[in-house]
Amino acid sequence: MKIKSAEFVMSNSDVAKCPNQAIPEYAFIGRSNVGKSSLINMLTGRKSLAKTSGRPGKTQLINHFIINKNWYLVDLPGYGYARVSKSSKKTFQKFITNYFEQRKQLVSAFVLVDIRHKPQPIDLEFMQYLGMKQIPFSIIFTKADKLKPKAIENHVNAYCDDLLQFWEELPQYFVTSSSKKIGKDAVLEFIDATNTEIEQLRQDV
Ligand code: GTP
Ligand code: MG
Predict the structure, then answer these.
(1) For ligand 1, is residue 119 a contact (CB within 6 Å)?
(2) What is the value of pTM for the model shown?
(3) Which domains does the chain have, with CATH numbers?
Protein backbone atom coordinates (compact mmCIF):
# COMPACT_ATOMS: atom_id res chain seq x y z
CA MET A 1 0.00 0.00 0.00
CA LYS A 2 1.21 3.44 -0.87
CA ILE A 3 0.79 6.10 1.81
CA LYS A 4 -0.57 9.13 -0.02
CA SER A 5 -1.53 11.10 3.05
CA ALA A 6 -1.08 10.83 6.80
CA GLU A 7 -2.50 13.49 9.09
CA PHE A 8 -2.85 13.96 12.81
CA VAL A 9 -6.52 14.19 13.78
CA MET A 10 -6.71 14.58 17.58
CA SER A 11 -5.48 13.52 21.00
CA ASN A 12 -7.82 12.30 23.69
CA SER A 13 -8.04 10.58 27.03
CA ASP A 14 -11.72 9.83 26.57
CA VAL A 15 -12.72 7.16 24.07
CA ALA A 16 -16.16 8.76 23.72
CA LYS A 17 -14.53 11.87 22.24
CA CYS A 18 -12.44 10.04 19.65
CA PRO A 19 -13.28 10.68 15.97
CA ASN A 20 -16.61 9.15 15.04
CA GLN A 21 -16.15 8.31 11.37
CA ALA A 22 -16.95 4.65 10.76
CA ILE A 23 -13.65 3.67 9.16
CA PRO A 24 -11.25 0.82 10.02
CA GLU A 25 -8.85 1.51 12.84
CA TYR A 26 -5.56 -0.12 13.91
CA ALA A 27 -3.99 0.52 17.31
CA PHE A 28 -0.40 0.21 18.49
CA ILE A 29 0.12 -0.87 22.07
CA GLY A 30 3.04 -2.18 24.13
CA ARG A 31 5.44 -1.29 26.90
CA SER A 32 6.67 2.28 27.19
CA ASN A 33 9.67 2.90 24.96
CA VAL A 34 9.14 -0.22 22.83
CA GLY A 35 8.89 1.95 19.72
CA LYS A 36 5.17 2.45 19.00
CA SER A 37 5.41 6.07 17.90
CA SER A 38 8.60 5.45 15.91
CA LEU A 39 6.88 2.59 14.08
CA ILE A 40 3.97 4.84 13.11
CA ASN A 41 6.44 7.32 11.65
CA MET A 42 8.26 4.57 9.78
CA LEU A 43 5.05 3.06 8.37
CA THR A 44 3.73 6.40 7.20
CA GLY A 45 7.09 7.69 5.99
CA ARG A 46 6.57 10.87 8.05
CA LYS A 47 9.51 11.60 10.30
CA SER A 48 7.72 13.28 13.15
CA LEU A 49 4.03 12.57 12.72
CA ALA A 50 3.98 10.79 16.10
CA LYS A 51 6.13 12.19 18.89
CA THR A 52 8.97 9.93 20.02
CA SER A 53 11.48 10.10 22.84
CA GLY A 54 14.31 8.13 24.40
CA ARG A 55 12.57 8.57 27.74
CA PRO A 56 9.67 6.18 28.45
CA GLY A 57 6.25 7.72 28.85
CA LYS A 58 6.34 10.14 25.92
CA THR A 59 2.90 9.28 24.53
CA GLN A 60 0.27 10.05 27.16
CA LEU A 61 -2.96 10.15 25.18
CA ILE A 62 -4.93 8.28 22.51
CA ASN A 63 -3.68 9.81 19.25
CA HIS A 64 -5.58 9.39 16.01
CA PHE A 65 -3.98 9.72 12.59
CA ILE A 66 -5.94 9.41 9.37
CA ILE A 67 -4.20 7.59 6.55
CA ASN A 68 -5.09 7.94 2.85
CA LYS A 69 -8.28 9.57 4.10
CA ASN A 70 -9.82 6.14 4.73
CA TRP A 71 -8.39 4.42 7.81
CA TYR A 72 -7.04 5.34 11.22
CA LEU A 73 -3.76 4.55 12.93
CA VAL A 74 -3.80 5.01 16.68
CA ASP A 75 -0.77 5.71 18.83
CA LEU A 76 -1.34 4.83 22.48
CA PRO A 77 0.54 5.42 25.72
CA GLY A 78 2.79 2.58 26.84
CA TYR A 79 2.05 0.30 29.73
CA GLY A 80 4.16 -1.20 32.45
CA TYR A 81 7.25 0.90 32.71
CA ALA A 82 9.19 -1.02 35.37
CA ARG A 83 10.04 1.96 37.56
CA VAL A 84 6.45 2.89 38.21
CA SER A 85 4.77 -0.48 38.24
CA LYS A 86 4.81 -2.87 41.11
CA SER A 87 1.55 -4.50 40.23
CA SER A 88 1.39 -4.81 36.46
CA LYS A 89 -2.40 -4.74 36.43
CA LYS A 90 -2.50 -1.17 37.69
CA THR A 91 -0.45 -0.02 34.75
CA PHE A 92 -3.20 -0.75 32.22
CA GLN A 93 -4.67 2.71 32.54
CA LYS A 94 -8.43 2.81 32.64
CA PHE A 95 -8.78 5.00 29.55
CA ILE A 96 -6.71 2.46 27.61
CA THR A 97 -8.90 -0.47 28.60
CA ASN A 98 -11.96 1.70 27.89
CA TYR A 99 -10.51 2.35 24.46
CA PHE A 100 -10.10 -1.36 23.72
CA GLU A 101 -13.51 -2.27 25.09
CA GLN A 102 -15.53 0.53 23.55
CA ARG A 103 -13.91 1.50 20.29
CA LYS A 104 -16.19 0.01 17.65
CA GLN A 105 -13.96 1.04 14.76
CA LEU A 106 -11.03 -0.98 16.09
CA VAL A 107 -10.29 -3.78 13.64
CA SER A 108 -7.03 -5.07 14.98
CA ALA A 109 -4.36 -4.23 17.53
CA PHE A 110 -0.63 -4.56 17.16
CA VAL A 111 1.15 -5.57 20.35
CA LEU A 112 4.72 -4.36 20.10
CA VAL A 113 7.52 -6.25 21.85
CA ASP A 114 11.25 -5.58 21.85
CA ILE A 115 12.84 -8.36 19.81
CA ARG A 116 15.73 -8.64 22.27
CA HIS A 117 13.62 -9.67 25.24
CA LYS A 118 11.87 -12.85 26.34
CA PRO A 119 8.10 -12.60 26.75
CA GLN A 120 7.48 -10.22 29.66
CA PRO A 121 4.62 -10.99 32.08
CA ILE A 122 2.93 -7.68 31.35
CA ASP A 123 2.90 -8.32 27.58
CA LEU A 124 1.54 -11.81 28.08
CA GLU A 125 -1.07 -10.39 30.40
CA PHE A 126 -2.10 -7.79 27.84
CA MET A 127 -2.35 -10.40 25.07
CA GLN A 128 -4.46 -12.54 27.38
CA TYR A 129 -6.67 -9.53 28.04
CA LEU A 130 -7.14 -8.94 24.29
CA GLY A 131 -7.94 -12.61 23.82
CA MET A 132 -10.52 -12.49 26.58
CA LYS A 133 -12.15 -9.46 24.99
CA GLN A 134 -11.97 -11.13 21.57
CA ILE A 135 -9.98 -8.31 20.09
CA PRO A 136 -7.85 -9.52 17.17
CA PHE A 137 -4.16 -8.72 17.46
CA SER A 138 -0.81 -9.35 15.80
CA ILE A 139 2.62 -9.12 17.38
CA ILE A 140 5.20 -6.67 16.10
CA PHE A 141 8.79 -7.34 17.10
CA THR A 142 10.59 -3.98 17.23
CA LYS A 143 14.23 -2.84 17.09
CA ALA A 144 15.37 -5.74 14.87
CA ASP A 145 18.39 -3.60 13.91
CA LYS A 146 19.80 -4.41 17.36
CA LEU A 147 20.31 -8.09 16.43
CA LYS A 148 22.09 -9.99 13.68
CA PRO A 149 19.88 -11.97 11.27
CA LYS A 150 20.59 -15.34 12.91
CA ALA A 151 19.82 -13.92 16.35
CA ILE A 152 16.56 -12.44 15.02
CA GLU A 153 15.48 -15.89 13.94
CA ASN A 154 16.49 -17.47 17.25
CA HIS A 155 14.75 -14.81 19.35
CA VAL A 156 11.53 -14.99 17.33
CA ASN A 157 11.46 -18.79 17.51
CA ALA A 158 12.08 -18.77 21.26
CA TYR A 159 9.36 -16.15 21.76
CA CYS A 160 6.88 -18.19 19.74
CA ASP A 161 7.77 -21.37 21.64
CA ASP A 162 7.06 -19.57 24.91
CA LEU A 163 3.75 -18.22 23.59
CA LEU A 164 2.64 -21.73 22.71
CA GLN A 165 2.54 -22.48 26.42
CA PHE A 166 -0.38 -20.06 26.68
CA TRP A 167 -1.92 -20.03 23.23
CA GLU A 168 -3.07 -22.88 21.08
CA GLU A 169 -2.44 -20.90 17.97
CA LEU A 170 0.17 -18.24 17.35
CA PRO A 171 -0.94 -14.80 16.27
CA GLN A 172 0.46 -13.37 13.09
CA TYR A 173 3.72 -11.59 13.72
CA PHE A 174 6.00 -9.07 12.01
CA VAL A 175 9.71 -8.33 12.48
CA THR A 176 10.40 -4.61 12.21
CA SER A 177 13.00 -1.91 12.70
CA SER A 178 12.00 1.72 12.51
CA SER A 179 15.56 2.92 12.18
CA LYS A 180 16.38 0.46 9.35
CA LYS A 181 12.87 0.55 7.85
CA ILE A 182 12.43 -3.22 8.13
CA GLY A 183 8.94 -4.71 7.99
CA LYS A 184 7.15 -1.71 6.53
CA ASP A 185 5.69 -3.47 3.48
CA ALA A 186 4.55 -6.53 5.43
CA VAL A 187 2.63 -4.50 8.02
CA LEU A 188 1.09 -2.20 5.41
CA GLU A 189 0.09 -5.16 3.23
CA PHE A 190 -1.60 -6.77 6.21
CA ILE A 191 -3.58 -3.58 6.86
CA ASP A 192 -4.41 -3.20 3.18
CA ALA A 193 -5.65 -6.80 2.93
CA THR A 194 -7.72 -6.37 6.08
CA ASN A 195 -9.25 -3.13 4.80
CA THR A 196 -10.14 -4.84 1.51
CA GLU A 197 -11.79 -7.71 3.40
CA ILE A 198 -13.86 -5.28 5.45
CA GLU A 199 -14.90 -3.39 2.34
CA GLN A 200 -16.05 -6.64 0.72
CA LEU A 201 -18.02 -7.64 3.80
CA ARG A 202 -19.72 -4.25 3.75
CA GLN A 203 -20.71 -4.68 0.10
CA ASP A 204 -22.10 -8.17 0.76
CA VAL A 205 -24.51 -6.86 3.36
P1 GTP B 1 6.09 5.73 24.82
O2 GTP B 1 5.32 6.71 24.00
O3 GTP B 1 6.92 6.38 25.86
O4 GTP B 1 5.26 4.61 25.35
O5 GTP B 1 7.22 5.04 23.84
P6 GTP B 1 7.06 4.45 22.37
O7 GTP B 1 6.73 3.01 22.45
O8 GTP B 1 6.17 5.29 21.53
O9 GTP B 1 8.57 4.54 21.85
P10 GTP B 1 9.23 5.63 20.87
O11 GTP B 1 8.78 5.41 19.48
O12 GTP B 1 9.09 6.98 21.45
O13 GTP B 1 10.75 5.15 20.92
C14 GTP B 1 11.44 4.96 22.15
C15 GTP B 1 12.93 4.93 21.89
O16 GTP B 1 13.30 3.78 21.13
C17 GTP B 1 13.45 6.13 21.08
O18 GTP B 1 14.71 6.49 21.59
C19 GTP B 1 13.58 5.59 19.68
O20 GTP B 1 14.55 6.24 18.91
C21 GTP B 1 13.98 4.15 19.94
N22 GTP B 1 13.54 3.26 18.85
C23 GTP B 1 12.29 3.12 18.38
N24 GTP B 1 12.26 2.24 17.36
C25 GTP B 1 13.53 1.82 17.18
C26 GTP B 1 14.15 0.89 16.28
O27 GTP B 1 13.54 0.27 15.41
N28 GTP B 1 15.49 0.70 16.43
C29 GTP B 1 16.21 1.34 17.37
N30 GTP B 1 17.51 1.06 17.44
N31 GTP B 1 15.68 2.23 18.22
C32 GTP B 1 14.35 2.46 18.13
MG1 MG C 1 4.95 6.82 22.04
Answers:
(1) no
(2) 0.95
(3) 6-198 (3.40.50.300)
